[in-house]
Design brief:
Layout: H1 9-23, H2 30-37, H3 41-48, H4 51-74, H5 80-93, E1 95-96, E2 99-100, H6 104-111, H7 118-139, H8 147-167, H9 173-185
Antiparallel strand pairs: 1-2
Helix pairs in contact: 1-2, 1-4, 4-5, 4-7, 5-9, 6-7, 7-8, 8-9
């Protein structure tokens, strides 16, 4: 007979997500996960198979957490203005008190090698492309933009968002707002 879990899976994954977000995938050990999640190694392996399994569940949870601002962008009919608001919303979302953590996905992409963790990289790339697709949808609301230019502009905005994520860990609020304002000045 299978043992009943003595923990709430969503709660432990939320804790794991926070740990990965603060420390990165590579620097987070199973021992650290055990301590942060409040469950033993056997339970981690039983429920999630390995550290990668915990991380993949953490990415799924991250997607649900960021869904509020993604939905706001998805439902926006303000074109470029909606995208600009997403950048500001993202900065607020990625804050924990005074700590700016950047984006869990961006942080992870910067440290994980595709050949070492192909399943993880696939999930991270899917997430990034979901955001890019939302940028494309919002840019298409502007009748004055050509489709070929829209694709290029969406790529540029993704690059800027990835850079903003990293910059948010280093720069102050004014500097980050300057990046957003300059990005959208000529659009």
């Amino acid at each position: 007979m299978a043992r009943k879990k003595q923990y709430n899976e969503e709660e432990v994954i939320k804790k794991a997500m926070g740990l990965f977000w603060r420390n990165g995938y590579e620097a987070t050990s199973v021992r650290m996960l055990e301590k942060e999640m409040g469950i033993n190694q056997f339970s981690i392996y039983s429920s999630f198979k390995n550290k990668q399994g915990v991380f993949l569940e953490s990415i799924k949870f991250y997607k649900t957490e960021i869904n509020t601002i993604k939905e706001k962008l998805k439902n926006s009919n303000n074109g470029i203005t909606g995208i600009k608001q997403y950048f500001y919303d993202f900065l607020e979302f990625s804050k924990e008190g005074n700590l700016r953590k950047g984006c869990l996905v961006t942080n992870s992409v910067n440290e994980i090698k595709d050949e070492d963790e192909p399943e993880v990289m696939l999930e991270l790339k899917k997430f990034a492309n979901e955001i890019r697709d939302l940028f494309v949808s919002n840019l298409k609301q502007d009748d004055q933009l050509e489709n070929t230019f829209i694709e290029k502009q969406a790529d540029y905005l993704m690059n800027t968002l990835l850079g903003l994520s990293i910059a948010s860990k280093v720069f102050n609020k004014t500097q980050l707002e300057n990046i957003i304002e300059v990005t959208f000045t000529n659009m």
